[in-house]
Amino acid sequence: MASWLPETLFEIVGQGPAPSKDYYQLLVTRSQVIFRWWKISLRSEHRSAKPGEAKDTHEEFLENSHLQVQIALIFGARVLDYVFSLCEGKFDFLERLSDNLLLSIISYLDLEDIARLSQTSRRFAKLCMSDELWEKIVHSCCDTITPDMRALAKDMGWRQMFFTNKLQLQRQIRKRKQKQGSHRTSHL
Predict the structure, then answer these.
(1) Fold of 97-182
(2) How far apart are CA 184 and CA 188, in angstroms?
(3) The pLDDT of residue 177 is above 90
(4) CA distance readout (Å), 13 to 79, 124, 158
(5) Which SUPFAM superfamilies does its entry note (predicted)?
(6) 175-185 CB burial, b ≥16 within 10 A, e <16
């Protein structure tokens, strides 16, 4: 397993399915699957129940069908599938990279690839629409960014600025300068 991965690979907490009031935690570390539970009951026979914990290595978890069924019932099949993947050493390394690093990588993609990437997850959709990404893209396409262009990008957004043709941009910069000029003379 990659040593740069954090100790905790995945964690989820939740309440058991109705009518249960019990709480559960599932924690996947680099070497173990830890399942914890807290019994919540008004019945006197369960009031003294202490919290419980089951720890398995990844290999043990892959063979422990009882624990797998419990996880599927409480957290759902998708969580169980994800935990299986982690225990088998299948990691989504892209999801673990910082936003800044991903923005740098995405800025080198073709526009069609950025559009496709934005459809893969909420996180990538947010990154692909972000002003930071489009500012990087505009900087890579333009030789110079004038203060007027920067001010216009602040108003309209870098993405919108990128997709606006040069004539429209020049017209908008001219209008912006005229507004600023008339705004200054009206204050005098």
Answers:
(1) Monooxygenase (1.20.1280)
(2) 7
(3) no
(4) 11, 25, 39
(5) F-box domain
(6) eeeeeeeeeee
pLDDT in tens, 8-52: 889 999 998 888 889 999 999 999 999 999 988 777 666 677 899
Which helix (H) or strand (E) segment holds residue 177: the answer is helix 166-187
Residue 165 φ/ψ region, left for φ over 0, alpha for ψ in the -120 to 50 degree band, beta for the rest: beta
Determine how β-strand 8-15 pairs with β-strand 23-29: antiparallel
| Contact indicator for 60, 70 with CB cutoff of 8 Å | no
Query: Do residues 13 and 25 make contact, with C-beta atoms less than 8 angstroms apart?
Result: yes
Report in angstroms the alpha-carbon separations of 109 from 72, 157, 166, 188.
Answer: 38, 20, 22, 49
Residue ranges per structural domain of the chain: 2-92, 97-182
pLDDT at 186 > cutoff 90 = no
**AA letter at 123:** R
Cα(92)–Cα(77) distance, integer angstroms: 18
Assign 8 to helix, strand or coil.
Answer: strand
Which pair of structure tokens corresponds to residue 74?
């409480």
Higher local confidence (pLDDT), 161 or 55 = 55
